[in-house]
Amino acid sequence: MTDPGLSPSTPPESAPDWGSFARAGEWRRALAAARLTPTPAALRGALEGIVNVQEAVRARSLGQARRALAGLQDDLEAAAGEGLTGEVALLRSLVRPGALGEALTALEATRRAPGGETEPEALTARLVPALEHPLTRAEALNAVGVLHALREEPEAARAAFGEALNTDPAHYRAMTNLGNLELEAGQPAQAEARYREVLRLNPDYDGAHHNLGVALRRQGKLHESVSAIRRGQRLGMKRSREESREDLREQFGHRAPPPALRWVLIAVGVLVLFLLLRGGLG
């Protein structure tokens, strides 16, 4: 998301080789370059799959990341069948699909574990496959930072979030967490600047809108605060609906959920809306 790619007006003859961006880990730029040149569809699809994996991991949407990885592998097989062996070998060496699958499994396991890890060392050990893969390392570091923050170890948390951003400057949740540390340290102006940078990367991230509202309120900017928090609430409800559909997709595949479950989900959605409206600005 920090990687805007190339301008669509750039003439094809001046477009750089997508492979140079891929080797640098700049996947969005690699995809933009491939779209500006006569790149085979299967290779473009593979690059889109890598970008989709990266964005899903940033959003902690691991089910989406898993499906994007499956599509990526299909596109790599198709490209290999078309005789693009050199390009496929390059992408496979950079992405390492098997290792990426193991990295996603490690991230998924830490989310499923009842209660989660309480010791950073134990969590780090469980996240080794994710820490060792370039597409998941930032997310794993962010998870370690969150645990340090929960343990009230702000300096260790700050170091982990900072390392996550060094790995992936567009990991907007790690940047949000740095803003949260600044807010808790009584630095609302610095937190505000951090949240605004997050929203430059991802304008629809509800958590940054809400926290921006809190930072603004602590500076006495009440009108701006109300606007930001309300926007965060609207986006949060939208994200909750999307996550509910995502959970259903993972549990039932392409089959529709049972009618009784659909009614339960509707009731839960109504309850969430009621609580949000009643909670106001807190």
Shape type: globular
From the alpha carbons, calculate the radius of gyration and give it in angstroms.
21 Å
Mean pLDDT: 86
User: How are helices and strands ordered from N to C?
Assistant: HHHHHHHHHHHHHHH
Low-confidence stretches: 4-12, 276-282
- Terminal CA distance reads 32 Å
Strand content: under 5%
Structural class: mainly alpha
Helices and strands in order:
Blueprint (H helix, E strand, L loop, with lengths): L17 H6 L3 H9 L5 H18 L3 H20 L3 H11 L1 H16 L7 H7 L1 H4 L5 H14 L3 H14 L4 H13 L3 H14 L4 H13 L3 H31 L6 H21 L3
Helix pairs in contact: 2-3, 3-4, 4-5, 4-6, 9-10, 9-11, 10-11, 11-12, 11-13, 12-13, 13-14, 14-15
What does this protein look like?
- Keywords: Membrane, TPR repeat, Transmembrane, Transmembrane helix.
- This is Tetratricopeptide repeat protein.
- InterPro entries: TMTC_O-mannosyl-trnsfr (IPR052943), TPR-like_helical_dom_sf (IPR011990), TPR_rpt (IPR019734).
- This protein has a domain of 95 residues.
- The chain has 15 helices and no strands.
- By secondary structure, it is mainly alpha-helical.
- The protein starts with 17 loop residues before the first helix and ends with a helix.
- The C terminus is likely disordered.
- The chain is globular, with a radius of gyration of 21 Å.
